[in-house]
Protein backbone atom coordinates (compact mmCIF):
# COMPACT_ATOMS: atom_id res chain seq x y z
CA UNK A 1 0.00 0.00 0.00
CA UNK A 2 1.63 3.24 -1.15
CA UNK A 3 0.98 6.64 0.44
CA UNK A 4 -0.42 8.31 -2.64
CA UNK A 5 -1.33 7.46 -6.21
CA UNK A 6 -1.15 10.47 -8.53
CA UNK A 7 -3.22 9.95 -11.67
CA UNK A 8 -1.92 12.20 -14.48
CA UNK A 9 1.58 13.44 -15.21
CA UNK A 10 0.93 16.97 -16.48
CA UNK A 11 2.09 20.08 -14.57
CA UNK A 12 -0.32 19.35 -11.69
CA UNK A 13 0.56 15.66 -11.27
CA UNK A 14 4.30 16.22 -11.64
CA UNK A 15 4.32 19.08 -9.13
CA UNK A 16 2.40 16.97 -6.63
CA UNK A 17 4.88 14.13 -7.18
CA UNK A 18 7.83 16.45 -6.52
CA UNK A 19 6.28 17.76 -3.29
CA UNK A 20 5.30 14.32 -2.04
CA UNK A 21 8.77 12.88 -2.70
CA UNK A 22 10.27 15.79 -0.79
CA UNK A 23 7.98 14.83 2.14
CA UNK A 24 9.54 11.30 1.90
CA UNK A 25 6.21 9.87 0.71
CA UNK A 26 5.88 6.68 -1.25
CA UNK A 27 4.16 7.90 -4.41
CA UNK A 28 3.30 6.42 -7.81
CA UNK A 29 2.49 8.63 -10.81
CA UNK A 30 0.60 7.03 -13.67
CA UNK A 31 0.33 9.03 -16.87
CA UNK A 32 -1.43 8.38 -20.17
CA UNK A 33 0.79 10.87 -22.04
CA UNK A 34 -1.62 13.49 -23.40
CA UNK A 35 -1.00 16.59 -21.32
CA UNK A 36 -2.49 19.83 -22.65
CA UNK A 37 0.80 21.45 -21.70
CA UNK A 38 2.48 19.40 -24.45
CA UNK A 39 0.40 21.39 -26.98
CA UNK A 40 1.75 24.78 -25.91
CA UNK A 41 4.14 26.08 -28.62
CA UNK A 42 5.65 28.58 -26.13
CA UNK A 43 4.00 30.01 -23.04
CA UNK A 44 4.73 33.61 -22.11
CA UNK A 45 2.58 33.90 -18.99
CA UNK A 46 4.11 31.14 -16.88
CA UNK A 47 5.89 32.97 -14.04
CA UNK A 48 9.67 32.64 -14.03
CA UNK A 49 10.25 32.36 -17.77
CA UNK A 50 10.63 35.93 -19.09
CA UNK A 51 11.46 34.75 -22.63
CA UNK A 52 8.73 32.10 -22.51
CA UNK A 53 9.12 28.33 -22.53
CA UNK A 54 7.68 25.65 -24.86
CA UNK A 55 5.17 23.40 -23.07
CA UNK A 56 7.10 20.16 -23.82
CA UNK A 57 10.25 21.67 -22.32
CA UNK A 58 8.41 22.72 -19.17
CA UNK A 59 7.09 19.16 -18.82
CA UNK A 60 10.53 17.69 -19.34
CA UNK A 61 12.01 19.99 -16.65
CA UNK A 62 9.29 18.96 -14.22
CA UNK A 63 9.95 15.28 -14.99
CA UNK A 64 13.65 15.78 -14.39
CA UNK A 65 12.91 17.51 -11.08
CA UNK A 66 10.66 14.62 -10.07
CA UNK A 67 13.39 12.10 -10.90
CA UNK A 68 16.06 14.08 -9.02
CA UNK A 69 13.81 13.76 -5.96
CA UNK A 70 13.48 10.01 -6.38
CA UNK A 71 10.13 9.87 -8.19
CA UNK A 72 9.26 8.26 -11.48
CA UNK A 73 6.41 8.07 -13.94
CA UNK A 74 4.64 4.88 -14.93
CA UNK A 75 3.18 5.12 -18.43
CA UNK A 76 -0.38 3.86 -18.60
CA UNK A 77 -4.01 4.72 -18.10
CA UNK A 78 -5.94 4.15 -14.90
CA UNK A 79 -9.13 2.54 -16.15
CA UNK A 80 -10.92 2.09 -12.83
CA UNK A 81 -10.65 3.45 -9.32
CA UNK A 82 -12.30 1.84 -6.33
CA UNK A 83 -12.53 2.89 -2.71
CA UNK A 84 -12.29 -0.17 -0.48
CA UNK A 85 -12.34 1.54 2.88
CA UNK A 86 -11.11 4.59 4.77
CA UNK A 87 -7.61 5.28 3.43
CA UNK A 88 -7.72 2.44 0.94
CA UNK A 89 -8.06 2.91 -2.80
CA UNK A 90 -7.45 0.39 -5.56
CA UNK A 91 -6.62 1.47 -9.11
CA UNK A 92 -6.52 -0.67 -12.23
CA UNK A 93 -3.80 0.07 -14.79
CA UNK A 94 -3.75 -2.46 -17.62
CA UNK A 95 -3.27 -5.88 -16.02
CA UNK A 96 -1.97 -4.52 -12.73
CA UNK A 97 -3.50 -2.91 -9.67
CA UNK A 98 -2.12 -0.25 -7.37
CA UNK A 99 -3.25 0.05 -3.77
CA UNK A 100 -2.92 3.51 -2.21
CA UNK A 101 -3.94 5.27 0.99
CA UNK A 102 -4.81 8.48 -0.89
CA UNK A 103 -5.31 9.46 -4.53
CA UNK A 104 -4.68 12.74 -6.33
CA UNK A 105 -6.56 13.11 -9.59
CA UNK A 106 -4.69 15.39 -12.02
CA UNK A 107 -6.18 14.13 -15.25
CA UNK A 108 -6.99 17.48 -16.88
CA UNK A 109 -9.44 18.19 -19.68
CA UNK A 110 -9.62 17.74 -23.44
CA UNK A 111 -10.59 20.59 -25.79
CA UNK A 112 -13.51 19.99 -28.16
CA UNK A 113 -12.44 20.85 -31.71
CA UNK A 114 -14.71 21.85 -34.60
CA UNK A 115 -15.69 18.72 -36.48
CA UNK A 116 -14.55 19.94 -39.91
CA UNK A 117 -11.94 18.76 -42.42
CA UNK A 118 -8.63 20.60 -42.39
CA UNK A 119 -8.80 21.67 -38.74
CA UNK A 120 -5.94 19.44 -37.52
CA UNK A 121 -3.76 20.53 -40.43
CA UNK A 122 -4.51 24.24 -39.86
CA UNK A 123 -3.69 23.76 -36.16
CA UNK A 124 -0.09 22.99 -37.07
CA UNK A 125 0.34 26.65 -38.12
CA UNK A 126 0.11 27.54 -34.40
CA UNK A 127 -2.45 30.17 -35.38
CA UNK A 128 -5.38 28.16 -34.11
CA UNK A 129 -5.48 28.75 -30.36
CA UNK A 130 -7.61 27.82 -27.39
CA UNK A 131 -6.73 30.09 -24.54
CA UNK A 132 -6.88 33.90 -24.86
CA UNK A 133 -5.94 34.25 -21.18
CA UNK A 134 -2.68 32.50 -22.13
CA UNK A 135 -1.78 34.17 -25.40
CA UNK A 136 -4.29 36.89 -26.34
CA UNK A 137 -1.58 39.38 -25.41
CA UNK A 138 0.66 38.00 -28.19
CA UNK A 139 -2.10 38.58 -30.79
CA UNK A 140 -3.13 42.07 -29.72
CA UNK A 141 -4.51 44.33 -32.48
CA UNK A 142 -4.60 41.45 -34.95
CA UNK A 143 -7.53 40.18 -37.01
CA UNK A 144 -9.04 37.55 -34.68
CA UNK A 145 -11.93 35.10 -35.04
CA UNK A 146 -13.61 33.11 -32.30
CA UNK A 147 -15.34 29.86 -33.18
CA UNK A 148 -17.99 29.46 -30.53
CA UNK A 149 -21.67 29.01 -29.96
CA UNK A 150 -24.36 30.84 -28.03
CA UNK A 151 -23.69 32.77 -24.87
CA UNK A 152 -20.37 31.03 -24.30
CA UNK A 153 -19.11 32.23 -27.69
CA UNK A 154 -20.18 35.80 -26.94
CA UNK A 155 -18.45 35.64 -23.54
CA UNK A 156 -15.23 34.54 -25.21
CA UNK A 157 -15.58 37.34 -27.81
CA UNK A 158 -16.09 39.84 -25.00
CA UNK A 159 -12.87 38.69 -23.35
CA UNK A 160 -10.86 38.88 -26.60
CA UNK A 161 -12.16 42.37 -27.37
CA UNK A 162 -9.70 43.51 -24.71
CA UNK A 163 -6.89 42.53 -27.09
CA UNK A 164 -8.25 43.49 -30.50
CA UNK A 165 -11.16 45.44 -31.94
CA UNK A 166 -10.97 43.50 -35.22
CA UNK A 167 -13.07 40.58 -34.11
CA UNK A 168 -15.39 38.03 -35.74
CA UNK A 169 -17.59 35.48 -33.96
CA UNK A 170 -18.23 32.36 -36.04
CA UNK A 171 -21.12 30.19 -34.93
CA UNK A 172 -21.32 27.06 -37.10
CA UNK A 173 -24.51 25.97 -35.34
CA UNK A 174 -26.28 29.27 -36.03
CA UNK A 175 -27.47 29.26 -32.41
CA UNK A 176 -30.50 31.39 -31.72
CA UNK A 177 -28.88 34.33 -29.93
CA UNK A 178 -30.70 36.52 -27.48
CA UNK A 179 -31.35 40.01 -28.97
CA UNK A 180 -29.39 41.67 -26.11
CA UNK A 181 -26.32 39.63 -27.06
CA UNK A 182 -26.77 40.48 -30.74
CA UNK A 183 -27.06 44.18 -29.83
CA UNK A 184 -23.94 43.92 -27.71
CA UNK A 185 -21.95 42.40 -30.60
CA UNK A 186 -23.21 45.11 -32.95
CA UNK A 187 -22.40 47.89 -30.52
CA UNK A 188 -18.79 46.65 -30.31
CA UNK A 189 -18.46 46.06 -34.06
CA UNK A 190 -17.98 42.32 -33.60
CA UNK A 191 -18.85 40.67 -36.92
CA UNK A 192 -21.21 37.69 -36.47
CA UNK A 193 -21.11 34.84 -38.98
CA UNK A 194 -23.79 32.24 -38.36
CA UNK A 195 -23.56 29.49 -40.89
CA UNK A 196 -22.44 25.89 -41.30
CA UNK A 197 -18.74 25.49 -42.02
CA UNK A 198 -17.28 23.36 -44.80
CA UNK A 199 -13.56 23.23 -44.01
CA UNK A 200 -10.52 24.91 -42.49
CA UNK A 201 -7.42 25.67 -44.56
CA UNK A 202 -4.28 27.82 -44.59
CA UNK A 203 -3.96 30.49 -47.30
CA UNK A 204 -0.73 31.30 -49.15
CA UNK A 205 0.36 33.52 -46.23
CA UNK A 206 -0.11 30.54 -43.88
CA UNK A 207 -3.04 32.28 -42.22
CA UNK A 208 -5.95 30.16 -40.95
CA UNK A 209 -9.15 30.40 -42.99
CA UNK A 210 -12.66 29.00 -42.82
CA UNK A 211 -14.78 28.12 -45.81
CA UNK A 212 -18.48 28.28 -45.12
CA UNK A 213 -21.19 26.07 -46.61
CA UNK A 214 -22.14 28.82 -49.09
CA UNK A 215 -18.54 28.92 -50.40
CA UNK A 216 -17.55 32.20 -48.69
CA UNK A 217 -14.00 32.17 -47.35
CA UNK A 218 -12.80 34.14 -44.34
CA UNK A 219 -9.14 34.41 -43.31
CA UNK A 220 -7.72 35.68 -40.04
CA UNK A 221 -4.41 36.24 -38.27
CA UNK A 222 -5.55 33.86 -35.56
CA UNK A 223 -8.62 31.76 -34.77
CA UNK A 224 -9.62 30.87 -31.21
CA UNK A 225 -11.59 27.66 -30.86
CA UNK A 226 -14.02 28.07 -27.97
CA UNK A 227 -16.26 25.02 -28.17
CA UNK A 228 -15.72 23.89 -24.60
CA UNK A 229 -14.02 20.80 -23.25
CA UNK A 230 -14.51 17.26 -22.00
CA UNK A 231 -13.43 16.95 -18.38
CA UNK A 232 -11.49 13.80 -17.52
CA UNK A 233 -13.13 13.43 -14.12
CA UNK A 234 -14.99 10.14 -14.64
CA UNK A 235 -12.79 8.16 -12.18
CA UNK A 236 -13.89 10.53 -9.41
CA UNK A 237 -17.49 10.89 -10.60
CA UNK A 238 -17.81 7.08 -10.50
CA UNK A 239 -16.94 7.28 -6.78
CA UNK A 240 -19.69 9.87 -6.28
CA UNK A 241 -17.46 12.97 -6.12
CA UNK A 242 -19.34 16.25 -6.38
CA UNK A 243 -18.88 18.44 -9.44
CA UNK A 244 -19.83 21.91 -10.60
CA UNK A 245 -22.53 20.78 -13.03
CA UNK A 246 -20.07 20.73 -15.92
CA UNK A 247 -18.09 17.69 -14.64
CA UNK A 248 -15.24 19.79 -13.15
CA UNK A 249 -14.61 18.53 -9.63
CA UNK A 250 -15.64 20.55 -6.61
CA UNK A 251 -12.98 20.64 -3.90
CA UNK A 252 -12.44 22.15 -0.46
CA UNK A 253 -9.65 24.57 0.41
CA UNK A 254 -7.21 21.64 0.72
CA UNK A 255 -8.18 20.40 -2.77
CA UNK A 256 -9.96 17.37 -1.32
CA UNK A 257 -13.05 16.25 -3.25
CA UNK A 258 -16.25 15.22 -1.47
CA UNK A 259 -14.77 11.67 -1.33
CA UNK A 260 -12.47 11.46 1.70
CA UNK A 261 -8.87 10.75 0.69
CA UNK A 262 -9.48 11.66 -2.96
CA UNK A 263 -7.86 14.96 -3.93
CA UNK A 264 -7.81 16.78 -7.28
CA UNK A 265 -5.69 19.52 -8.87
CA UNK A 266 -5.30 21.29 -12.20
CA UNK A 267 -7.76 21.62 -15.07
CA UNK A 268 -9.95 18.78 -13.76
CA UNK A 269 -10.90 21.05 -10.84
CA UNK A 270 -13.41 23.83 -11.26
CA UNK A 271 -11.15 26.88 -11.59
CA UNK A 272 -8.97 28.80 -14.06
CA UNK A 273 -7.30 26.40 -16.51
CA UNK A 274 -3.74 27.69 -16.21
CA UNK A 275 -0.28 26.30 -15.55
CA UNK A 276 0.26 28.53 -12.53
CA UNK A 277 -3.06 27.41 -11.04
CA UNK A 278 -2.38 23.70 -11.69
CA UNK A 279 1.06 23.99 -10.07
CA UNK A 280 -0.26 25.98 -7.08
CA UNK A 281 -3.18 23.62 -6.47
CA UNK A 282 -0.86 20.61 -6.67
CA UNK A 283 1.39 22.11 -3.99
CA UNK A 284 -1.60 22.66 -1.68
CA UNK A 285 -3.06 19.19 -2.34
CA UNK A 286 0.27 17.39 -1.85
CA UNK A 287 0.86 19.16 1.46
CA UNK A 288 -2.67 18.38 2.66
CA UNK A 289 -2.20 14.72 1.66
CA UNK A 290 1.11 14.56 3.53
CA UNK A 291 -0.45 16.11 6.65
CA UNK A 292 -3.46 13.77 6.49
CA UNK A 293 -1.24 10.67 6.46
CA UNK A 294 0.50 11.34 9.78
CA UNK A 295 4.18 10.75 10.52
CA UNK A 296 6.33 9.06 7.92
CA UNK A 297 7.43 5.57 9.12
C1 LIG B 1 -2.80 25.08 -26.95
C2 LIG B 1 -2.76 25.39 -25.47
C3 LIG B 1 -2.02 26.46 -25.02
C4 LIG B 1 -1.97 26.74 -23.66
N1 LIG B 1 -1.18 27.79 -23.25
C5 LIG B 1 -1.08 28.06 -21.95
C6 LIG B 1 -0.26 29.14 -21.49
O1 LIG B 1 0.39 29.83 -22.28
N2 LIG B 1 -0.24 29.41 -20.16
C7 LIG B 1 -0.96 28.66 -19.24
O2 LIG B 1 -0.89 28.96 -18.06
N3 LIG B 1 -1.72 27.62 -19.65
C8 LIG B 1 -1.78 27.29 -20.96
N4 LIG B 1 -2.59 26.25 -21.37
C9 LIG B 1 -3.32 25.47 -20.35
C10 LIG B 1 -2.40 24.45 -19.66
O3 LIG B 1 -1.84 23.63 -20.65
C11 LIG B 1 -3.19 23.62 -18.67
O4 LIG B 1 -3.81 24.49 -17.73
C12 LIG B 1 -2.29 22.63 -17.91
O5 LIG B 1 -1.65 21.76 -18.80
C13 LIG B 1 -3.12 21.85 -16.90
O6 LIG B 1 -2.31 20.89 -16.28
P1 LIG B 1 -2.94 19.53 -15.69
O7 LIG B 1 -1.79 18.81 -15.10
O8 LIG B 1 -4.13 19.83 -14.88
O9 LIG B 1 -3.52 18.75 -16.97
P2 LIG B 1 -2.75 18.19 -18.24
O10 LIG B 1 -1.54 18.99 -18.53
O11 LIG B 1 -3.74 18.07 -19.34
O12 LIG B 1 -2.27 16.73 -17.80
C14 LIG B 1 -3.20 15.72 -17.50
C15 LIG B 1 -2.49 14.38 -17.68
O13 LIG B 1 -3.31 13.35 -17.14
C16 LIG B 1 -3.23 12.22 -18.00
N5 LIG B 1 -4.42 11.37 -17.81
C17 LIG B 1 -5.71 11.64 -18.08
N6 LIG B 1 -6.51 10.61 -17.73
C18 LIG B 1 -5.67 9.65 -17.23
C19 LIG B 1 -5.89 8.34 -16.71
N7 LIG B 1 -7.11 7.83 -16.58
N8 LIG B 1 -4.81 7.63 -16.29
C20 LIG B 1 -3.55 8.14 -16.38
N9 LIG B 1 -3.30 9.39 -16.86
C21 LIG B 1 -4.35 10.12 -17.29
C22 LIG B 1 -3.17 12.83 -19.39
O14 LIG B 1 -2.65 11.91 -20.33
C23 LIG B 1 -2.25 14.03 -19.16
O15 LIG B 1 -0.89 13.69 -19.37
C24 LIG B 1 -2.68 25.94 -22.72
C25 LIG B 1 -3.44 24.87 -23.19
C26 LIG B 1 -3.49 24.58 -24.54
C27 LIG B 1 -4.31 23.41 -25.03
CATH superfamily of the largest domain: FAD/NAD(P)-binding domain
Please give the domain count.
2
Q: What name does the CATH topology of the largest domain carry?
A: FAD/NAD(P)-binding domain
CATH class placement of the largest domain: Alpha Beta
Indicate the structural class: alpha/beta
Overall, the morphology is elongated
Arithmetic mean of pLDDT: 96
Describe it:
- With 297 residues, the protein is of the alpha/beta class.
- The chain has two domains: 2-110 and 229-292, FAD/NAD(P)-binding domain; 113-226, FAD/NAD(P)-binding domain.
- Helix content is 26%, strand content 28%.
- The chain has eight helices and 17 strands.
- The strands form four sheets. Strands 1, 2, 3, 4, 5, 6 and 17 form a seven-stranded mixed sheet that branches.
- A hairpin with a 4-residue loop joins strand 13 and strand 14 (217-219).
- Helix 1 (11-22) runs parallel beside helix 2 and helix 1 (11-22) packs parallel to helix 8.
- The two termini are 13 Å apart.
- The model has no long low-confidence stretch (mean pLDDT 96).
Keywords:
5-stranded parallel beta sheet, alpha/beta, 2 domains, binds flavin-adenine dinucleotide, 7-stranded mixed beta sheet, 297 residues, FAD/NAD(P)-binding domain, 8 helices, 26% helix
Amino acid sequence: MIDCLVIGGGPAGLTAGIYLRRYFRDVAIVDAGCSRAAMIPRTYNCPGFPAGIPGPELLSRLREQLERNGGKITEGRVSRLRKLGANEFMAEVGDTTIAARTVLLATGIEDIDPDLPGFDEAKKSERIRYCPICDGFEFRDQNIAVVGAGEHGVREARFILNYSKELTLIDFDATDLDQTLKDWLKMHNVRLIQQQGRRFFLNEEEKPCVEMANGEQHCFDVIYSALGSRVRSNLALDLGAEHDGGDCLSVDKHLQTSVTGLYAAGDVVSSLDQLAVAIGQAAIAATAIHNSLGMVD
